[in-house]
Amino acid sequence: VAGENFDQSPIRRTFKSKVLAHYPQNIEWNPFDQDAVNMLCMPKGLSFRTQADNREPQLHSFIITREDGSRTYGFVLTFYEEVTSKQICTAMQTLYQMHNAEQYSSVCASSSCSMDSLASSIDEGDATSLAKLQRYNSYDISRDTLYVSKCICLITPLPFMQACKKFLIQLYKAVTSQQPPPLPLESYIHNILYEVPLPPPGRSLKFYGVYEPIICQRPGPNELPLSDYPLREVFELLGLENLVQVFTCVLLEMQILLYSQ
Asked: What is the pTM assigned to this prediction?
């Protein structure tokens, strides 16, 4: 388990994640920092879900800033895939049995009763709330399907968010589709890593993803720097009044601290 969240039910806990594979193994100008990428791809750790939970893929981005001020940008698509290992499913079932036993004991203690007479003397409200909690946060190996989070990530020298987002979504679609893409998956990954160049300043570039073409544009030397992030999300996250206040603070050269989970 990644954090000290043992009071949570096992499905709601987070677990330690790791990098399964990365390509290429290393680049001189951009050495691969496994710990940093692992933490930034899954900042809350590995998580599990069942068929009853929301498992929609989600995209987020990060920046790695080095001591010399150079930056690299990461774009991450997190999705859930079915756990096929019986050993992991059995371990999750065991965690639930332990968790439910602890919940049982705590309710018993709060009701001042013995384990033998729990059923007859437990407060009805406590019993109902406990039953609801166990139904919501439950896992039965014979009835439920277990899913685990997984990420695919692109690390780039410039923040081409929309292009990276489209490529990752197409790659995910190819992985999960019943109908395989025209070429092996490795060929699409090789293409974007080795054959798609950075567009020259002031020019746009069109390249082919897995299913559809993707376009990215790089500003010229006298233009504003590349800002490919959707402004709509800023309004949704901060709200109009907060955004106006932040913008005012920027113009007044005030110190700004953004705090986030």
From this structure: 0.78
